Structure formats: C-alpha cells, structure tokens
Amino acid sequence: MTQLTISMPDALQEWVNTRVAQGRYVDAADYLRDLVRLDQQSDDRLWLKAMIDEGLASGVLDQDPRDVIAEIIAEDPDFA
C-alpha cells in the first residue's frame, strides 16, 4: 500500500478529527479513503446519468422492440 502525506489547515484537521471521533472511521486515513471512494462513485453516477439522459433525449420508437433488434442485426451481420 502506498503512503500519502498531506498538510491541511487546522480547521480541516478538526473536521477530520470530529468525523473520526463520531466512530464511523477508525482514523483519518480511513476517512480520507472513504472520501476518495465517494468521489469515484460520483464519476460513475455522472456517466450513468449522462447515458440515461442521452437515451431519454433520443425519443421513443413506436416499433416492436423485436423488429428493431432484427433491423440492427440485418444491418450488421457481425453483430449477431
């Protein structure tokens, strides 16, 4: 595991100490690792939201989904 040393203002250190004292985290490193994980998940959520928005913006087809799939396969024989 890699070590990371950071400096922070006293007010931020007090915030970290308060979070650790609340009992959810073992120590400051545990708290900071959790913040990094949350940041990673946020990126994943943003990507997913963008894909959902793109799908919604593309509209709704009146065709039967099986017909749409058949057309896609017919256009690209390597797809199947």
TrEMBL record:
Entry keyword annotation includes S-adenosyl-L-methionine: no
InterPro entries from the UniProt entry: ParD, ParD_sf, Ribbon_hlx_hlx
Keyword hit for tRNA processing: no
Top-rank lineage group of the source organism: Bacteria
Keywords: Toxin-antitoxin system
Listed NCBIfam families: antidote_CC2985
Protein name listed in UniProt: Type II toxin-antitoxin system ParD family antitoxin
